[in-house]
Structures are given as structure tokens and as C-alpha cells.
TrEMBL record:
Highest taxon, organism lineage: Bacteria
Residue span(s) of domain DUF4872: 155-324
InterPro entries: BtrH_N, DUF4872
Domain Butirosin biosynthesis protein H N-terminal, first and last residues per copy: 14-142
Name of the featured protein: DUF4872 domain-containing protein
Amino acid sequence: MTKVKDIDARGTQHCETSALGVLLRHQGLDLSEPMLFGLGSGLSFVYWDSKGMDFPFLGGRVKPFELTENLAARLRLELVVRETGSPRKAWENVAAVIDAGHPVGLQLDSYHLDYFGSKVRFGGHVVAMYGYDDHDAYLVDTDQQGGAVSTSLAGLAEARAARGPMTARHRSFTLTVPGSMPTPRERIVPAITACADAFLDPPIANLGHRGIAKAGKLVPTWLQRAGDPLRALPQAALLMERGGTGGALFRNLYRDFLAECAGLLDSGHLRTGHRLYAEAAAMWTEVAALIAEAGESGDARCLEQAGAVLCDLSRVEREAMLALSRLGSETPGTGA
């Protein structure tokens, strides 16, 4: 058996930030999960539907691995990414890092992991791996999935080799903290304004505040869109609240990030953004509950109400991001 020593196997709420936390804590950089999410400019929104999909998808964050790339660039971490079409080379890439005494991040399809109780195909899942033996791999996943867990080497190989939406070619990655790096406090404003600018000016109508408004118009049609509303709608609601989002489609995480920032920077725009995202988080939880109720009852009025809340959410989040986008024009001081 080969295991990396002194692993802090804290599982948290979201897969990518859970893995990032493991890799960075092993090098002495301990940031909260909301801070990792926020410094990675992780918040977004997408309404995704196509003819080949059984049901629309509501996403609340940037695409898989973009958060990691953003965080590395912002804190000047050395990010080394390896991808390959060869399962043998893929295993060598991972084993070499662990044998050298370091954990490694993996992007894979959660469907093939033994410990997942709910078998859903998701090729953007991220875990930290810290050990292996002849039969199993030892991973850190979210609290919801068990934190420190194990899966068979065969299942891990299938998960890494999977192809489809959001998958990567046996992607593994490491992060190295440099001897000198900017403090997280110094990078808060660029992280927030970059996230706000992308949210306010999306390239297509499915993204950002425009995507939320679009969802407000289309969600009321979901009873007709779903082949099996009793299954599809409650599952959509479950993914919004408990599918590794931290609750409220990642808005709880971003709310908590802004609260942490407000303790470090004295900014009226930041306080406004935090207040509005606290409001938005509660509204997203309301939307999820209404969608679940519509699926269970078949009552279209629940979806009409959810659509109305979504239209309000588009406005609230736009106002929040407009305030946050102005952070760059301030000279914030140190908060009390």
C-alpha cells in the first residue's frame, strides 16, 4: 500500500474545491471552501438544453476545471496538467506523484466510482487521490459522498477513461505553492470583478443574468418538456440543492465568500453584493422547492411561480454583480 502522509482529508461541499483544498493544505495553504470558490471566480449560470437531452440542465458555476485554472493564475500557483489517451500512461502519471509523496487531482466520470450511491453520469467530477494498493484507490471527495473514500482500481480506470459531455482525457493535475505569492486578500478584488464582468456580459443568452431570465420563461413549460415529470423535476431540484453545489445552486458558497471578504475589505459595494447574494440564495432554494413540488403534484402553478422568482433573481443577481463590478474603482481599506 502506498499513501501520502499527513493528508487532511476534509471533504467539503463541492467536488472541485474539495480537491483543491486537499492539494493546497498539504503544502500549508489552508483557505476556506468559499474563499477557494470565490478566488477561482467560480460563480456563473447556464441554462442548457438540446434535442439529445432528456431534460434541461441548470448550472450555477463555470465549466469544470476553469475554477482551478482561475485560482492557479490568480495566486500564481504552479499548475501542472497531464492528459493522455493511454490508460497505462494515465496511471503512471498519477502513481508517480503519489509515490513522490504528494496528492494528485483527477477529473473523471462519477458514474463509475464504487462509493457513489446515485449513479449519474457526470464527466466533470473532480477528486483528490492520495493512495493506492493492489485493488483500491484512496480518494477525498465531498462530505456528501463520504469525504475520505476508496474505489476499485478498475472503477477508477473506467471513470478516467469515460467519454462524453464535460469529460477530459485521463486528466490529472498538481498544484505547487511558490515561495512567494500574493496574499489571498490582494486577489479578492480582481477575482470578484472578473466574475461580475463575465456574468453581466455573457456571449449568449443562456448564460449569466440573461440565462436566469431565460430560465424564468422556460421553466413553466417543464411539465410538458419532461417525459417523466415525477422523476425529472424532483431530481433537478435535488441537484440544485444537494448535487455538490453547497446549496442554492452555488449561491450559498458565493454568499459566504462575500461575507468573508467583507471582513477583510471595507467596501460599500462589497456589502451590497453580499446582501443581495444572501437574498438570491434564499430565492434559489425557493425555486428548487417549487420545482420539486411541481414534479410531485403535477401542478403547473408551481412552475409558473418558480418562473416568476427566476425573473426576479435575474434582476437581483444583475444588481449584485453591478455593485461588485465597481469594486475596482474603490480603494478599499481594512474592515473592522
